Queue: 4 jobs
Job 1
Amino acid sequence: MIALFAGFLTVSLSSCRDQKPQEETLEESLIDDMQDKGADIKVKDDGDKIKMETEDEKVKIKTDDDGNVKIKVKDKE
């Protein structure tokens, strides 16, 4: 009985370990990239509007009420 329980426990723990991490969305990758560049980041409306700015570029991410995401990337010249 103990061996059977140990076998089920081992299988359940190893199956959790095999899961691949979720792929990063475009928004998440842009945010990570801008953070790495040291951007000023402003978040409004509980994350519905995100503005990030470095010396070289501006990025705006806006989520509307339907869940649609708009991304604007502008290079400063």
Note: The beta strands are 40-44, 49-53, 57-63, 69-75.
Job 2
Amino acid sequence: MSIKHLAEAVIAQAMDDLSDDAERNDSTRFFKGEGFRICAERAGMDLPDQITLLNIVNSIVCATKRQKTAVTNARRTHQKSGKYLHSTHNKSREWSVIGL
């Protein structure tokens, strides 16, 4: 295995780790640090490619944070009011409040 293939594998694994709650913080630190720059250079990525990949990583991390925040807020709302929003699954896409 060449250094290029090894560097590509490290980057691919870090991308994969973004979807794992237990590994996401380490993966994010990798992309923010010197390790990513070194691996990207060894993998033959030029600066525009590196920026593109970092933008993808950023969008994944931000989307994950938004999902967690939405779930947390929904739980808080549920706990405070004893009610939650529920989609009625009809064509009008109306929302209704359902009590527990």
Note: The longest strand covers residues 83-87.
Job 3
Amino acid sequence: MGSFTLFKIKATVETGAMLLPEDQVDKTLEELRGNLKRLGLAVLSIDRTNVAEAQSEEPLDAKDPWSFRGQGRA
């Protein structure tokens, strides 16, 4: 019989930002947990942001598709 090694992989998975109505958040998270569980993975943490709260202003840069040479487009 061959030799075996027990190992555990810790990885970070990131989805794109999802803007969901408040009543669909729990359903979406349960679907995500179910899909990951079928793959043998688990959710360790979820970051939530309330879009109603003021967001910090990040400086525009040349890579921002909504700016031109670092200046916001009107």
Note: Residues 19 and 66 are 19 Å apart (CA to CA).
Job 4
Amino acid sequence: MKTIEKRKNRVAILWCLSLLMVSTFSYAQQNKNTLFMQANKAMLNAKVMQADILVPNEYNKGVDNYKDAEDYYAREKGVEKVEELLVKAVNYFNRSADFSVSAKLVFANTLNAREDALSAGADKFAKELWLEAEEDFNRAAKELENGDRDDSYKYSTAAIEMYRKAELSSIKTDLLDETRILLEKADEMKVDRNAPKTFKRAKSLLAETERELETNRYDMDYPRILAKQAKYEARHAIYLNSAISKIDDNNMEMEEVILSYETPLARIAEKIGFVAQFHEGIEKPEQEIIEHVLELQSNNEMLIAENFDKEIEIWHLQSTVALLKKQNVALNNEFRNEIDKRTDAMKAQTKELENEKALLAARIAKQAKIHDQFETVYLIFDSTEASVFRSGDEIIIRMHGFGFDVGKSEIEPVNFALLTKAQDAIRIFQGSNVIVEGYTDSFGSDEANLVLSQKRSDAVSQYLIANSDTPDNNKITSIGYGENNPVANNETTQGRKQNRRIDIKIQPNL
């Protein structure tokens, strides 16, 4: 009986090892997409973190190893060498992404100046100045990587100055010059006969832009917006003149005109699933369309957060799969020499997998608890008060219903009810770290906005601490980010209102 049992065990071992050999062969035959998947994700993440700009040395080393891996793969030099190069590439990309977090704080003003220049089209209309600014920024980033903060500051300051010059040059070249040409064309077309108000507004905006450029050389946000509006209004006046002339030429009745402008709204309404009715004017169908868009935006935020969690889970599973594949290769190499020892090795692996399974189960349980708590917090607020979503394990409460007076940091009584709800949400996550983040729109200087956002976040955090019934259970801190990390377009009134916000981040204690 013992001999039969021993033979059964040996057959089972041989069968398992045969499967491992097949798995190894399949691994060697894997396609490029699978082989390069981890490196592609690491490179994409580094790009998203702007590591190619902020940490060029480390990022470029990752690119070099990635290209070498592609070359080896194309020449069929062996999977092992390709994997070795890809591992190096991933390490460089990950290091560059990690370092870019602190680099973003160091170069916050430089990045703002660069974004403003891009928004003005400086890379197209002031190319020489733009390239010179890019070169200074690249040198600043490399000096920071090398640990030389003094030279890094010198070059980043030079880059800011050059970006501002490029932005100003672009505004004058692209926006103002083209606007003047459009206004001359409009004047020749006698646009003021059919669209006098729009034509007058275009000229007024152009004049105001020129005054702002002369008197305010430190904040280009407002002049840039004025210049874009002037260019738009000039084009708008020309269009209105053409449209009104067409109406006159065709002897269209007023009813026909109104019906022609109701048609686009009716088509949009039909696409999103309802019939637009205009017996009370266009306001009602317009509001219904806006509400539908807002609902879609809210759903999209939730989907993005859920997708992020899924990607993290997939990444962990892929890491486990990669580990198992390497273990399979090791088992196959040892099979020919020490079959008896391989039995012990397989038992050890089984135990390791059981431990991993237990750890994974514990993590899933923690994630389930956080999910349930998140659902509770989500129901506390309605859509007019705040958006609640997750970023990894963090819970973010974006209180767009909270407002400060312009330039003020005092909390008004009208906000007490919303802050009470925020306290209820924090209380659900006992023992968590809580960060109150303050933001402003882009109007005003960077320094003033940074100070104002800090005062606002301090005011909210102090209120939460002062009115907490369990002040020691949660650690509440505050930080102001000024005009950084906008969630909407600063060139519109609604966008600037959304950017003047308070975010509360809850970091559960895992």
Note: The radius of gyration is 31 Å.
